[in-house]
Amino acid sequence: TSLLEEENISDMDAFVAITNNEELNIMSSLLAKRLGVGRVITVVNRTEYIPLAHSLGIEVVISPRLITASSILRYIRRGDIVNLTAIAEDMAEIIEAAVGPGSYFRDKRIKDTRMPASSLIGAIIRDGEIIIPGGDDTIKSGDKLIIFTLRESIKDVEKLLL
């Protein structure tokens, strides 16, 4: 505590805990919050610590393991995938996919797509605007789709993205 106080941590805008010791990162982040730091970022490698850190009030928890897995998955997955994030300990994925001129999704209404039951198009990004779509919204070339899918439907979603 005294080291953080000596460094006037209460005057800091942010605190980042990036040691190799996850427990130390969580504890020092909690202390920084208690001492008045506005934004606290904690790095953990064990994914089971992520919900714990969030429940303790640490807003930003970064897992290098999940970031690495997401980066690898982006190259493994097929289709026009712009970005991909594995969530819930790899039980689901959030996929950002580009809609090109030859895309299956182009000029289709949301309700006319053949999305698997455990997947959904949660957002359309069009001209820098985010649209939360309803069934009658039409997907256009140039759009980006934000797709939420459970693990069992990933291959079916990939087929639609080819």
Under CATH, the topology of the largest domain is which?
Alpha-Beta Plaits
Q: Topology as H/E string?
A: HEHEHEHEEEEEH
> Low-confidence parts lasting 5 or more residues at pLDDT below 50?
none
Rg measurement, Å? 20 Å
The pLDDT mean sits at 86
State the name of the first-level CATH class of the largest domain. Answer: Alpha Beta
Supply the CATH architecture of the largest domain. 2-Layer Sandwich
Share of residues in helices: 25-40%
Q: Could you give me the name of the CATH homologous superfamily of the largest domain? A: Regulator of K+ conductance, C-terminal domain
Q: Characterize the biggest β-sheet.
A: 5 strands, antiparallel
- The total number of structural domains is 2
Strand tally: 8
